[in-house]
Specification:
Layout: H1 2-26, H2 34-37, H3 49-60, H4 64-72, H5 79-104, H6 110-118, H7 120-153, H8 157-173, H9 180-203, H10 231-236, H11 244-253, H12 262-287, H13 291-315, H14 319-351, H15 358-375, H16 380-409, H17 417-436, H18 445-466, H19 468-471
Helix pairs in contact: 1-5, 1-12, 3-9, 3-11, 3-12, 3-14, 4-12, 4-13, 5-11, 5-12, 5-16, 5-17, 6-7, 6-16, 7-8, 7-14, 7-15, 7-16, 8-14, 8-15, 9-12, 9-13, 9-14, 11-14, 12-13, 13-14, 14-15, 16-17, 17-18
Protein name: Carbon starvation protein A
Subcellular location: Cell membrane
Pfam families: CstA
């Protein structure tokens, strides 16, 4: 319990200290934002700050900080380290920079921003990469909530899939203030009740469960113990750093009324998600009395079943558990809808198609949702694994872009280090993972570890050669 509370405190302190440092290095100005310059009543709409924060939080807080946290908890309380320090030094920086770079560049999608600073080749790669990732995200966040709703109501999953898909169509098509800005505060309340309720249940010892203390030991259950590096860093995904967030931040950059609100909205939402992830990771280990019990629960009922058991176990079978489940369901739905919306905006930026007219929005929305509907019939676990890796690769690319931007645009000396260090780290993680994982090349660690390290060093050298060394 002590280390859990300490981890929670560090996350909060990190927002007020490191988050403030990153904001100061970036240097917000009083210049008008895209929301005020291009107010079109559809995508560019100035919104109250509290609404922008809740929308950003619910956009990014999909299944990652819940399902990903439970998967990461299989390695034991050591996952707390990655959630806390990943959120403060990587995820928060990533989300802040992706949002603020978009604010500075007319609310453009992440692919256009990367292309602007990294060249035409990276522009084309990022356009394709972003759309593919967003479709995978929309599919994952379509299937996940449908599974949970089927579990909660005992109805078949197919009607729920169709209902979620129809909602996604409306959220993708309608102006941002018609559905998203109206209903997200309600979903946010459910999410907060869920987090507070489960954390309270753990801290007060409901059910006699004892919270384990944080340690560096690898507690992955079974005879074949999976290594922490790099598997845990990919599995947790959204709860520490997520490239998907970079596709969502531009949506809110088109609604932000003042650059100085970037830290509470972008960095703050990531810290809030880190807190949610920390609670769920702790809940998984605590409620099932260790990693072996958690693994058995995940095998028996899947992550949706484990979530249901945790909610009812800590909050009872009544209204509290129902609200907690609704909060968990709202997380993926409020990320899936904006995933397809972001895919529409990415394609619109790519092909320079104005999105004010309804028929022009339909041009992109219908094919995107149709592809998502087809992919929803695939094995959820397979889609999730590929989503997790592509997600972290995108985070790596965005961090490198942020480092280039900070070097080129910011007056503060060595401001680029706040992005360069986590970018190098994620370069090592993602390259090592794809070389080692089942869905990758399945090479032994004697090869993957040194090759991944060399790849990270090469990325760092390329960046320094193009910036610092070139100037020297």
């Amino acid at each position: 319990m002590i280390t859990f509370i300490a981890a929670l405190a560090i996350l909060i302190v990190g927002f007020f200290t490191y988050g403030k440092l990153v904001d100061k290095l970036f240097g917000p100005t009083d210049n008008p934002t895209p929301a005020t310059i291009h107010n079109d009543g559809v995508d560019y709409i100035p919104l109250p700050t509290w609404k922008v924060f809740f929308i950003q939080l619910l956009n990014i807080a999909g299944l990652g900080p819940i399902f990903g946290a439970l998967g990461g908890a299989l390695w034991g309380p050591c996952v707390y380290f990655w959630i806390v320090f990943g959120t403060i030094f990587a995820g928060g920086v990533h989300d802040y920079l992706s949002g603020m770079m978009s604010v500075r560049e007319d609310g453009h999608s992440v692919s256009e921003i990367v292309g602007h600073h990294m060249g035409s080749t990276m522009l084309m790669i990022m356009r394709v990469f972003s759309v593919v990732l967003l479709i995978l995200v929309g599919t994952v966040f379509m299937t996940g909530p449908a599974m949970l709703l089927a579990k909660l109501t005992a109805f078949p999953i197919l009607p729920w899939l169709l209902a979620v898909l129809f909602y996604y169509f409306l959220a993708t098509m309608l102006p941002v203030d018609k559905i998203i800005a109206r209903f997200y505060p309600l979903f946010g309340a459910c999410l907060l009740i869920m987090a507070i309720g489960i954390a309270g249940g753990m801290l007060t010892g409901v059910g006699g469960h004892v919270m384990p203390e944080m340690a560096l030991a690898n507690l992955y259950p079974g005879q074949t113990q999976l290594p922490i590096w790099p598997l845990m860093f990919i599995t947790v995904a959204c709860g520490a750093i997520s490239g998907f967030h970079a596709t969502q931040s531009p949506i809110m950059s088109r609604c932000l009324k003042d650059e100085r609100l970037g830290r509470p909205v972008f960095y703050g939402a990531m810290v809030a998600e880190g807190i949610i992830c920390l609670i769920w990771a702790a809940a998984g280990i605590t409620f099932f009395d260790g990693t072996e019990g958690l693994q058995a629960a995940l095998k028996a009922g899947g992550p949706g079943g484990a979530v249901y058991e945790i909610c009812t176990g800590f909050m009872g079978q009544g209204i509290g558990a129902m609200l907690a489940m609704l909060g968990v369901i709202a997380c993926p739905i409020t990320s899936g809808d904006t995933a397809f919306r972001s895919a529409r905006l990415t394609l619109a930026d790519w092909f320079h198609v104005d999105q004010v007219a309804t028929k022009k929005r339909l041009l992109f929305a219908i094919p995107l949702l149709a592809i998502g509907g087809v992919l929803s019939q695939m094995d959820f676990n397979v889609v999730w694994r590929y989503f997790s890796w592509t997600n972290q690769v995108l985070a790596m690319i965005v961090l490198w872009t942020g480092a280039v931007y900070l070097y080129q645009k910011c007056k503060a000396k060595k401001a680029w280090l706040v992005a360069c260090i986590p970018a190098t780290f994620m370069s090592v993680v993602t390259s090592t993972y794809i070389l080692q994982a089942k869905e990758g090349f399945q090479l032994p660690t004697t090869i993957t570890y040194p090759v991944g390290f060399v790849f990270g060093i090469c990325c760092l050298f390329i960046f320094l050669r193009a910036t610092v060394l070139k100037k020297a």
